[in-house]
Write a structure and sequence with these properties.
The complex is a heterodimer of chains A (115) and B (118). Helix content of chain A is 0%, strand content 48%. Chain A has no helices and 11 strands. In chain A, the strands form 2 sheets. In chain A, strands 2, 4, 5, 6, 9, 10 and 11 form a 7-stranded mixed β-sheet that branches. A 4-stranded antiparallel β-sheet of chain A has the order 1-3-8-7, with no helix packed on it. Chain B is an all-beta fold. Helix content of chain B is 0%, strand content 52%. Chain B is globular. Chain B starts with a strand and ends with a strand. The chains are: A mainly beta (115), B mainly beta (118). The interface between A and B is medium-sized, with 29 and 24 residues.
Amino acid sequence: GAGVSQSPRYKVTKRGQDVALRCDPISGHVSLYWYRQALGQGPEFLTYFNYEAQQDKSGLPNDRFSAERPEGSISTLTIQRTEQRDSAMYRCASSLGRTGVNEQFFGPGTRLTVL
Amino acid sequence: AQTVTQSQPEMSVQEAETVTLSCTYDTSENNYYLFWYKQPPSRQMILVIRQEAYKQQNATENRFSVNFQKAAKSFSLKISDSQLGDTAMYFCAFMTHRGNNAGNMLTFGGGTRLMVKP
């Protein structure tokens, strides 16, 4: 009965390094969303998966950001050549993905700090 | 594109009293959903209440209720009998239902920080 989990919970990296953030959704949840939340602001949409298919990546800020969900379960968000402006809380959320509007359950987030 | 505005960055209320948090949004859609999320100091995101735009009746969940004014594009949250545990950041969010192929992403406001004082 675990909820959405994310790892690592905290990541400190130096500018220019690559980072990979992991999201483990609730078992059986088809839909998976990635959001980014800057300090003092609301979350902003990054990308969406339906099973393993990345159906919407319109929120990814630039081509340094990519995401995958190869088996339709765990997802990884990768940021290449990190910059200080990438510092934020990265959250994923999953939902059942059945007909109608299903609640999105959020993970605890990964707080990324780029020095 | 949809936008969500929360005009009150911070609010405070005495324990046991009532407080109302404001939210306005802009959209050309007719079928959509509105949500209030709570983010306590632990920084979890917890769904408080949701409202379907096609429903005229305002949603209620225990001490939490909304005042949904579709024509005015307003969606305020009322917290009755405020408790210390209500201290948190509150986010208003908007969703257009696009189906599971396209995704139902949330658009959030900037948040209102609520402090409940003993």
